[in-house]
Specification:
Layout (H helix, E strand, L loop, with lengths): L1 H4 L13 H11 L7 H9 L2 E6 L2 E6 L2 H10 L35 H8 L5 H28 L5 H6 L12
Antiparallel strand pairs: 1-2
């Protein structure tokens, strides 16, 4: 199927697809770096490529225009996406990209998109711009002060401190 679609990618094994390749990369890079594996594969095969998990073809892309096409323009054709293979680790397991038709909390991509989309209209983004800009300026000042005192900065706590209501997830 990948060849029919004209997608590049690593040569698959008949039974396991590219799982052996994936496991080898996880062993080399570590499970905590598994979100970056797809970027490494994209460096070799291009922005959009096919990757087999068993007999299931995954189409992966780092192309922003491709992502816009799938997730915005044609989202109704892609509501039943499979979970991202071997990405059930922080931070990916909490990502909106990890939600299929039925998410882990009983709702899926379509429900989340219908709630989130109205928040990001052009008008609302313009209204939020001042607050976002102010928080970024504060973050920059705090980071500059901390870097002058110490060259090692805990970015999670620093970032969260710019907005007391912001929730920060730490790896467990």
């Amino acid at each position: 199927l990948r060849d029919e679609l004209g997608l590049p990618g690593p040569k698959p094994d008949f039974f396991t697809g590219n799982i052996k390749d994936l496991m080898k990369m996880i062993k080399e890079m570590g499970i905590e770096n598994s979100p970056y594996i797809r970027l490494k594969v994209a460096e070799k095969y291009g922005k959009t490529y096919g990757f087999y998990v068993g007999s299931l073809l995954e189409i992966n892309s780092t192309d922003l225009e491709f992502a816009k096409e799938v997730m915005i323009k044609q989202f109704s054709n892609f509501i039943n996406r499979q979970p991202i293979t071997f990405q059930d680790v922080f931070p990916m397991k909490e990502s909106l990209l990890h939600i299929g038709k039925d998410g882990p909390h009983g709702y899926g991509w379509k429900e989340i998109r219908s709630i989130v989309s109205p928040v990001f209209t052009t008008g609302k983004m313009k209204l939020m711009f001042g607050t976002i800009h102010e928080r970024i300026e504060t973050l920059i000042k705090v980071l500059e002060n901390r870097i002058q005192k110490d060259d090692c900065v805990d970015i999670y706590d620093t970032y969260a401190g710019c907005d007391r209501k912001m929730r920060v997830w730490h790896r467990s």
